[in-house]
Amino acid sequence: MDLFDPTFVSSLMHKKYCLVVTDDYSRFTWVFFLTTKYETSEILKNYIKEIENLVDKKVKIIRSNNGIEFKNKVMDDFCREKGIRREYSVARTPQQNGVAKRRNRTLIEVDRTILADSKLPTTF
């Protein structure tokens, strides 16, 4: 995947949201670009199935904020079926999700650096 490929750039232009998944143990991070927040449940379900198959380990806990994209019937049923516990952060307590906040800040800084070096128009 070439970050400066015009077709890749144009496909991202329609994506408004970013889902960032970070592994607690390794701090490895996956980024998914979404058109709507409603895609979150399906992407998380597919990601969990794929990662459990790939590393032959079970996802035990999902930590997230209280957004409706994480608290819905689809995710409730999926997590109950897989035996996954869910933990939600309390609103306005950045201490509870410091890892996520730092990771997001790092991703934004990297994104800005790549955009500045690409010499693309400032509209990007």
What is the residue-mean pLDDT, rounded to a whole number? 84
Radius of gyration, taken over Cα atoms and rounded to an integer in Å: 16 Å
Q: Care to count the β-strands?
A: 4
Distance between the termini: 19 Å
Estimate what percentage of residues fall within beta strands: 15-25%
Described by strand count, sense and barrel closure, the largest sheet is: 2 strands, antiparallel
Q: What's the helical proportion of residues?
A: 40-55%
- Cα shape: globular
- Helix-strand sequence: HEEHEHEH
Give the neighbour order of strands across the main sheet: 1-2
Coarse structural class? alpha+beta
The tally of helices reads 4
Stretches where pLDDT falls below 50 for ≥5 residues? Answer: none
State the oligomer: single chain
Task: Give a structural overview.
The model has no long low-confidence stretch (mean pLDDT 84). The protein has helices at residues 6-13, 40-55, 73-82, 98-118; strands at residues 17-22, 29-34, 61-64, 85-88. A two-stranded antiparallel ribbon has the order 1-2. A two-stranded parallel sheet has the order 3-4. The chain is built from 4 helices and 4 strands; from the N terminus they run αββαβαβα. Among the domains are: 38-88; 95-124. It has 124 residues and is of the alpha+beta class. The chain is 44% helix and 16% strand. Helix 3 (73-82) links the parallel strand 3 (61-64) and strand 4. The two termini are 19 Å apart.
Which features does this protein show?
RNaseH-like_sf, Ribonuclease H-like domain-containing protein, single chain, 44% helix, two-stranded parallel sheet, 4 strands, 124 residues, RNaseH_sf, Retrotran_Ty1/copia-like, globular, alpha+beta
